[in-house]
UniProtKB/TrEMBL annotation:
The lineage of its organism: Bacteria, Pseudomonadati, Pseudomonadota, Gammaproteobacteria, Orbales. Residues 13-134 form the Coenzyme Q-binding protein COQ10 START domain. CDD domains: COQ10p_like. The keyword rRNA processing does not apply. Keywords: Toxin-antitoxin system. The keyword Transmembrane helix does not apply. InterPro entries: COQ10-like, COQ10_START, START-like_dom_sf. It comes from Candidatus Schmidhempelia bombi str. Bimp. Belongs to the ribosome association toxin RatA family. It holds the Pfam family Polyketide_cyc. This is Type II toxin-antitoxin system RatA family toxin.
Amino acid sequence: MTKINYSVTEPFSTKQLFDLVNDIEAYPLFVPNCVKSGILEQQSTYMIAFLEVEKLGFRKRFITKNTFNEPNNISLSLVDGPFKYLRGYWHFTQVDPLNSRINFELQYKFNSKLLEIAFTPMFREIMTDMVKAFSQRAKQVYYD
């Protein structure tokens, strides 16, 4: 199983950061390698959403159930996609009146050995780049 952990402190409120991460339909506008995204079902405490990512000719789509506790966290669980297992968490913590910490954790295992070998390094890079893109997006949305 592969694990990704990424943490960064940003000069924004937890609500602002939560809103950016939860705006899945905007991902293709700023998340590298995200070619398509959307919401399949929306309820007050969760959504079923999909992401389609592409890098170096590999294109994969996966669907997750995103359960949220606004503005503190979003948990992701696999509904469908090229994984045997996928679970993730976004945690947003106000560290002082002007700054919040984003913690992103993702654990996954592809459903075939071929995908595991071919796509794991790229998927890790895609997910890390995605988290970094939220920092840039926050500056564009809240400072410009």
